[in-house]
Design a protein that fits this description.
Helix content: 10-25%
Mean pLDDT: 85
Distance between the termini: 57 Å
Structural class: alpha+beta
Low-confidence stretches: 1-22
Order of helices and strands: HEEEEHEH
Radius of gyration: 17 Å
Shape: globular
Strand order of the largest sheet: 3-4-5
Number of strands: 5
Number of helices: 3
Largest sheet: 3 strands, mixed
Length: 122
C-alpha cells in the first residue's frame, strides 16, 4: 500500500453507527472513565465505584447521566453533581450534559464495586 492508500483512522470513534464521520463524539465508556475523577468528598471514593452512577447514555454530542446519592439528604450532593457535569463538559465533542438525579432504586452499599466493598469491609 502506498501512503495515499493507507486508511485514515479517526482519533475518536463515533458513539454509534449513525453518527456523522469525522465528528468528535463521546461514547458511554469514555464518559464513565471521566466520571471516575469525581469523588464523594466524605468517603474519598469515586462515584462510579460507589455505584452512584446508574446509567450513562450518549446521543451525538449529548451525554445523559442517571445518578443517585448515598442519601436524599446528602450535604455533598450539589457539589458531586456539579463536578460530574463539569468533568463531562470538558470531554472533547461534548456540547450538552443532562444530569438526572434518581432515587429509584434507592442506593445501598450493595451497589458499591465489589473490590471496593471488600476493601471497606462490607
Amino acid at each position: 500500500m502506498t501512503e495515499e492508500q493507507t486508511p485514515q483512522v479517526p482519533a475518536t470513534e463515533p458513539a454509534s453507527d449513525d453518527a456523522p464521520a469525522g465528528d468528535a463524539v463521546v461514547n458511554a465508556d469514555q464518559a464513565r472513565l471521566v466520571l471516575r475523577r469525581v469523588k464523594d468528598p466524605e468517603l474519598n471514593l469515586n462515584i462510579v465505584d460507589l455505584g452512584l452512577i446508574y446509567d450513562v447514555q450518549t446521543e451525538g454530542s449529548t451525554v445523559r447521566v442517571d445518578m443517585s446519592l448515598t442519601s436524599p439528604g446528602c450535604p455533598s450532593g450539589p457539589e458531586i453533581m456539579g463536578e460530574a457535569e463539569q468533568q463531562l463538559r470538558e470531554l472533547p465533542g461534548v456540547t450538552d450534559v443532562v444530569m438526572n438525579l434518581v432515587w429509584t432504586p434507592p442506593w445501598t452499599p450493595e451497589r458499591i464495586e465489589p473490590r471496593v466493598r471488600a476493601y471497606m469491609g462490607f
